[in-house]
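# step 3/5: fold
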Amino acid sequence: MSRDVVFVTGATGFVGSHVVLKLLERGKRVRVFARRSSNLKNLKGLDVEMVYGDLTDAKSIREAMRGCRQVYHVAADYRLWAPQPAAIYQNNVQGTRNVLEAASQEKVEKIVYTSTVGALGFSQDGSPSTEQTAVTLEDMVGHYKRSKFLAEQEAMAAAKAGFPVVIVNPSTPVGAMDIKPTPTGQMIVDFLNGRMPAYVETGLNLIDVEDVAEGHLLAMETGRVGEKYILGNENLSLKEILEMLSRISGLASPKIRLPRGIALGIACVSTGWGRLTGRTPRVPLEAVRMSKKKMYFDSSKAVKHLGLPQRPVQDALQKAVVWFRQNGYVRRN
């Protein structure tokens, strides 16, 4: 079997599908690893080889990876709430361990592991964080962040043991094909549907999802083994993001800034109701707790060493708005 094939997990999702598109643009042969229950809409019409399995099934991963030269482990259980939190750790931590072990056994040339800026620390003086900002597991808020921190530690340990792993830490990608959608995509959908009467004081680092995908390929091509690269662009307050969405959509931006205590109260009620009903809460408690600190990051390392593109964030938000409207996520004009 040819070893020119590239193996991608998470290819049916938001970031993963864009990674696949970039690989195909470069003429690569792509093998996609997905669960049979996955929504394949983002891969429709693409010339990829589909192989089915599960991240928690080590045997299925190794069999699917056989003969591949490079691996992009993009898949993640990205939920800020789950009725059974243990599933998040199984998917993110054990799943990553299984992918790394399979890649080692199959002697792949290189692997790019997709972490998140959520696994990084916050600077003491409030300046944008870097890859080197000190952080511990105790700093992680919620199961998603904790699981991704632990999964990143697995990738770092593999690199220290001599395995060719490069880690990328995307910030907050926005753009088309956010099929699920992600929590940030859901925020955009809620705005477009008039379901955001107020906002909290927080901030995010936004980046075009196409630039995140390009950053993955650049990390594979020139990223140094054992290094981490923040894939981000512009630091914006939530108010600034909502004002951008207002200019793009023609809809009014919410004017009321919700005090954090009230937001926490609403989140507690919403999350409590979710536990009773088994339904995802509209306002997860972890999301409000995470908003206490502005998620501002410095992506200059990736820009300098990888050549990470920096397309305008407003254009990325424009693409997201158009895609959500065209694909039935928006119920009002």
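# step 4/5: annotate
Residues 182 and 279 are 16 Å apart (CA to CA).
# step 5/5: archive (pending)
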